[in-house]
Design goal:
282 residues; alpha+beta; Thrombin, subunit H; 6-stranded antiparallel beta barrel; 3 helices; 12 strands
Length: 282
């Protein structure tokens, strides 16, 4: 009968016993010198490495998380600084270009005042693309009063003359083209000749007698006798004089004063030069 009672109430009895044992462990666990504290210590020691690893992993994850956002912030700041630096460089380049343009315009104004002739400035917008002729294209044409035959100058010297005109642009034949010719003279010795371009490259002053006094380094200027270029404008410098060989004339090589490849602005003399009266008929 007793065994039947225990078997019938085995679950409540077992639960009560376990509760008593648990209460005993809890009570005895607060005393560090009791044997009941040993199981808890053993469990804590066994779990300590895992707890340390978990804590380090959590700290590492937190550090990576913060480092990621720090790197994102630094990248955004670098992007902003690069954009600001690019704007500063662009602004500096624009200011330098404006300063250079102001200097060119100032020099052009001085040239215009020195000429004492009606003239107009124009931008160079193109060059000959075929290579068959040495020409430039300038901004401005018949709408601005430009016409064929007008002289084209730069602050360095003579450039050429207009040969074709459109409503908004004009074509200029350079003085180093083989189809060009202008009347000029040696500023030192006053020897006259015709300056023309060569087919290959360079310029020569033609029709200079072999007995004339022309030397390397002499300055060649316009004579004003061709009715196109005003007198006294710089054409170039004599680079060499060849006296050998047959013929009546010297070979006088001339380097142009203007650098045609670097021209950005030119001055067009819009005032026609006075033409000489026609020769009397015999």
């Amino acid at each position: 009968m007793k065994n039947y009672f225990l078997w019938r109430n085995r679950v409540p009895i077992t639960g009560a016993v376990l509760l008593l044992v648990s209460a005993h462990f809890l009570w005895s666990g607060v005393l560090p010198d009791q044997r009941a504290a040993r199981p808890r210590s053993l469990v804590m020691e066994a779990l300590a490495p895992f707890q340390i690893a978990a804590a380090r992993l959590a700290d590492g994850g937190s550090g990576i998380f913060h480092d990621y956002f720090d790197l994102v912030g630094v990248q955004r700041e670098n992007t902003r600084l690069r954009a600001e630096l690019a704007r500063e460089e662009t602004q500096r380049a624009r200011l330098a270009e404006l300063e250079a343009e102001n200097l060119r315009l100032s020099d052009m104004l001085e040239l215009k005042q020195a000429l004492a002739l009606r003239s107009a400035a124009a931008n160079v917008i193109g060059a000959d693309a075929t290579g068959l002729a040495r020409t430039l294209v300038i901004e401005g044409g018949s709408d601005q009063g430009f016409a064929a035959g007008m002289a084209v100058l730069s602050t360095d010297g003579v450039v050429g003359k207009i040969i074709a005109v459109g409503p908004g642009s004009s074509r200029v034949l350079l003085i180093n083209d083989h189809n060009s010719a202008l009347d000029a003279f040696d500023q030192r010795s006053r020897v006259r000749g015709i300056v023309a371009g060569l087919v290959d490259e360079g310029m020569v002053m033609k029709y200079v007698d072999r007995s004339e006094d022309v030397k390397s380094g002499d300055t060649i200027v316009t004579s004003g006798l061709d009715g196109i270029f005003p007198r006294g404008l710089l054409v170039g410098e004599v680079t060499s004089v060849v006296r050998e060989g047959p013929g009546l004339f010297l070979t006088v090589n001339v380097a142009p004063a203007a650098d045609f490849r670097r021209l950005e602005q030119v001055l067009i003399v819009t005032q026609r030069m006075p033409q000489p009266p026609p020769e009397p008929k015999g």
